[in-house]
Amino acid sequence: MNLAPAQLAEHLKRGLKSLYTLHGDEPLLLQEFADALRLQARQLGYTERTVHTVAGAHFDWSEVLASGGSLSLFADKQIVEIRIPSGKPGKDGSVALQQIAERAQGDDSTLTIVMLPRLDSMTAKGAWFGALDSFGVTVKFDPIDRRNLPQWIAQRLQMQGQRVAAGEEGQRTLQFFADRVEGNLLAAHQEIQKLGLLYPAIEGGVLGFDEVENAVLNVARYDVFKLSEAVLGGQAVRVARMLDGLQSEGESEVLVHWALSEDIRSLKRVKDAIAAGRPMPMALRENRVWGVKEKLFERVLPNIGDATLANLLTAAHKVDGIVKGLKQPDWPASGWQALHRLAGMVCEQCAAPARTDGRSANR
Question: Residue 19's beta-bridge partner residues?
């Protein structure tokens, strides 16, 4: 049974289940959900708690199996937590988890919580995960993307009795806040709590831009692959900020270049496939373009011509040499400056207005 994180309060009103599997990319959201389960369980008399962290290929699962089937003399109900940081329980763990899942059905004396990182598609199709999903409640925690981050911040501020001003001023404040904490949700949570401590009695609970600017640290963390989405989205200002952030974090210039150049090559391959008569959906699938990037490709491809793609490929080849220490005429000697220029070139094309005459551009 799948459950969305936002459905927790309504779910708990109907009663606590005996097995929960929590998995995803956001440790903060996963931990908060687990805390809510524990609180509810304690109120229902689950007074004993054991935690098992699965580490290494030779982890002894017998202790986990035993803890789920026995209670101490001082407790009628217990919580058993199984944490698998790698997301790979191994052969013995797979068997054990299937036994635990089957045993959980109808067992109201033990609450079992299995905590996992984000799972790839092959792992999620495994027999052990299928058993956990079939016999219990499965909750997936997706990252809060940049587009939804301001709303998430506003909701969290509201929970502690605070809000930003209405209208454009408030939106500017939320966007500034999101820029400072993007990619680092735990730090975002801490900065929100800090605002609650610094301005507990502010009039009407309304935070102005100045209060947020003075209090919120720049704790953003950037992802090379999120950079790729921003470039394809034509978000030039955000892309420049992300490149600066990646540089300050010590990210490899070669990896950033690979991400940018791979997108350019993918655009060229899909464009060529469409020219050869392939429908766009088929061309995208064959070139392993899906998810967010699929929508971005669908938007930008009709506006990018063959000549433009050829120029971008040439530029990517030159930047490849620069990040490896070579010099190129009319290009910056610095690898990061060259990456800024290359990303800006792609951004400019991806931000171009969509054509409405039904024809592809050939710039």
Answer: 112
